[in-house]
Amino acid sequence: MREQFDIHEHRHKLKQLRDSGDTKLFENRGDVECPVCQTVFRRIFVTTNQAVQFPENDGSRFCVQRQSERLAVFRH
Ligand SMILES: [Zn+2]
Asked: Which of 28, 32, 61, 74 has the greatest number of beta carbons closer than 10 A?
C-alpha cells in the first residue's frame, strides 16, 4: 500500500493558494512527487467534503488519493 501524502511533511515546498476550511489548494514550489504516479505534480487539492465538483481545466492529467479523512487530488 502506498503511503498517504502528508502536506505538513512537505509544507515548506508548497505554497498555499486557497483555504476555505474544508478545502485547501497548494502549489508545488519544489520537486514534491505525487504519491500515486511518482512524478512531480503542479498543484494539490485536499478536501474533507464528501462530494466535490471540479471546474473545467486545461485538460492536464491528475491523480487521486483517498485518505482516511480526506481526498487528495494531484494535478500534473
Ligand atoms: Zn500523479
From this structure: 74
